Amino acid sequence: MGKPIKVVTKTFKVIEILNQGKGISLKDLAQQASLPKPTAFRILDTLLSLGYADQDAATQQFRLGSKFLTFVKSSSAGADIIALAKPYMEKLGEAYGETINLARLTGDQIIYVRVLESDHSFRISDNIGDRASVHSTAIGKAIAAFLPEPQLKEILNTTTFTSFTRKTIIDEASLRKHLVLVKLQGYSVDDEEGHDGVLCIGAPIFNKDNLPFAAMSISMPKVRAKKKVLDNMIRDLPKVAVQLSLDLGVTDIRKCFGKEPS
Amino acid sequence: MGKPIKVVTKTFKVIEILNQGKGISLKDLAQQASLPKPTAFRILDTLLSLGYADQDAATQQFRLGSKFLTFVKSSSAGADIIALAKPYMEKLGEAYGETINLARLTGDQIIYVRVLESDHSFRISDNIGDRASVHSTAIGKAIAAFLPEPQLKEILNTTTFTSFTRKTIIDEASLRKHLVLVKLQGYSVDDEEGHDGVLCIGAPIFNKDNLPFAAMSISMPKVRAKKKVLDNMIRDLPKVAVQLSLDLGVTDIRKCFGKEPS
DNA sequence: TAATGTCGTTTCACATAGTGATATATACGT
DNA sequence: ACGTATATATCACTATGTGAAACGACATTA
C-alpha cells in the first residue's frame, strides 16, 4: 500500500472529531486533532464549502453537515442487507411482538442499521445509527464468536470492557470462554449484560466470504422472556439468519459455522 | 471563504461516486471523477487505509466502507430531531395507524431520517436513508413553501422535474403557485404526485433560526384517506410539527410562518 | 473608553506533499 | 505464448498545502 494522502487523513480526523459531539470550537478541534489552527481551519472551510460541515451562525461552532446522511444507504452492502432483511425482520416481529434489531460490525463497534420496534408499550429499543460494544450485546457476541482469530484479537485489543450491569462480561478471558459456547450453540444470549432487565438473543449473518459481519437480534424485557417463547426464538432466529446469509451469497453455510473459514 | 483544499474536494467527489452504486472499477471511477488514474488510485488507497472504502477481494472493485455508517447520527442536529420527534411520531402512528415519516432537506433532496411504519399490511413505506425529490413529496413541498427565496431558487434551479405519475408537478411555475397555497394552509398535500394511489400530507419543522429544514408526513393508500380522517390529520400534524419546532428552539413560531424570516 | 484577552480568519514565503505521464505487474482470455 | 485488459508503482516537477505571525471582531475587565 502506497503512502496515504496526508490532508485526507487529517480531514477524516477532523470529521471524526466533529462526529463526537454536537458542536466544537476551532480552537478545541485543532487541539484535539493536534493540528495548527490555520490547518484545521482550512480543512473545516473546505468541508463547509462542500456541505459536509455546518457552522452555527450564533456560536460559530462547527458540526457535521447533514449531507453525511446521504451515506446511510449503500455503505458497503449496507443497502443489500437492509433490503433483504426487511421481510424476515417483519415476520419475526409479527411472530413474537418484540423488538428486532439488525446491526453491523464496524471496526470494534456494533452499529444498528435497522430496528423494528415492538408494539408493546414496555419495550426495548435502540435507534438506527446507535453504537454499542461487542462484549455487552447479543449481536456483538454472535459476530465475535465466528470471527477469525486475528480479527477477533484486534477487536479485543481495542475493547474497553465497560461494565453496564452486574452481569456484564468484563474481561477478555471470560468473554473468550463465553464465545466458545456461542459458537457451539450457533446463537448468543445477552442476559442483562447490557441493560438491567433486558434479555436479548442474537444470531450471526455471514457474507459471501463466509465471514460474520452483521447479526440479527430479538430484545425484550426479561419478564416477558418465558422459557417456551425463548425456545421458539432460539429455533427461529438462527434459521432466519442462515437464510439471510444464503441470500447474501453464502454457498456453503457449514463453512461459516465450521472451525476455521477456508 | 478561502480556497478549498483541492485533494479534499477530489476525495469527496470520489466518495460521492462510490456512494452511487455497489461497486466500481478504478478505471470507471477515474473517468467519472475526471481524474487521472493514479490520482484516483491514491485517493482510494488512502480511503482504504482509513477504512472508509473497501475493495472486493474477488472483483477488485471499490465501494464505500461501512465506517460511514458511523456518521448517521450527529449529522447536524440529526440526532436531536430524531430523538425529539420519536414520541410525537408514535402518537400519530397510534392515532391513525398509518406510516409516519420524518425527513430532512439536504441540498436539493429529501432524506428520510426516521420512518414509523403502519401495521396495515397494505401500507406505504420508505426506508431510512432513502432520498426523494422536493417537487414530488409532501415533505419536500412543506419545506420548500417556507424557504427564503434565494435558497428556494437554488434548489429549483438544480431540480429536474421528473414525472412519477400523471399528477406530478413538472414545471417550476406550477410548483411555485402550489407552494403559495401550501404556505397559506401551513401544510402540504401530495395527492398521487409521487406514487399512484398514495396520498401524503406534510408539515414543516423549523430550526431556531426560523428556517424550515425538515418535515413530518403521514402517508397512506388513497383508498383509506377518507375526508373525516384527513381533516383530523390536517388538524393534528401541523400542531405536532409546531410543537417539535418549539422543542428545537424556535421562540416565535409566527415568524416561521410569516412572509419573510427576520 | 482604553486595555487586554480570546476567538475565528487571512496572509505569505517556503518546501513539502501531491501530481500524472509513463512504466510495471498481474490477471485473464484466446 | 501472446495480447489486452486491468490495478499498482515510479519519479522528476512544481503546484499545493503549510503554519508562524498578523489581523479583525467581539467580549471582558479596569
Unreliable residue runs of chain A: none
User: Helical proportion of chain A?
Assistant: 40-55%
CATH architecture name of the largest domain in chain A: 2-Layer Sandwich
Derived from helix and strand composition plus strand pairing, the structural class of chain A reads alpha+beta
CATH homologous superfamily (4th level) name of the largest domain in chain A = GAF domain
CATH topology of the largest domain in chain A: Beta-Lactamase
Strand composition percent of chain A: 15-25%
Major sheet attributes of chain A = 6 strands, antiparallel
Sheet with the most strands: spatial strand order of chain A: 5-4-3-8-7-6
What is the global morphology of chain A? Answer: globular
Q: What's the helix-strand series of chain A?
A: HHHEEHEEEHHHEEEHH
Oligomer: homodimer
Q: Can you identify the CATH class of the largest domain in chain A?
A: Alpha Beta
Largest protein interface, residues of each chain: A-B, 63 and 61 residues
Q: How many structural domains are formed by the residues of chain A?
A: 2
How do the helices and strands line up, and which of them pair or pack?
The structure is a homodimer of 262-residue chains.
Chain A: H1 6-18, H2 26-33, H3 37-50, E1 53-55, E2 62-64, H4 78-96, E3 99-106, E4 109-116, E5 131-133, H5 138-144, H6 149-158, H7 172-185, E6 188-191, E7 198-206, E8 212-221, H8 227-247, H9 253-257
Antiparallel strand pairs in A: 1-2, 3-4, 3-8, 4-5, 6-7, 7-8
Helix pairs in contact in A: 1-2, 2-3, 4-8
The first copy, chain A, binds a DNA duplex (30 and 30 nucleotides) through residues 2-3, 5-7, 25-27, 35-39, 41-42, 45, 60.
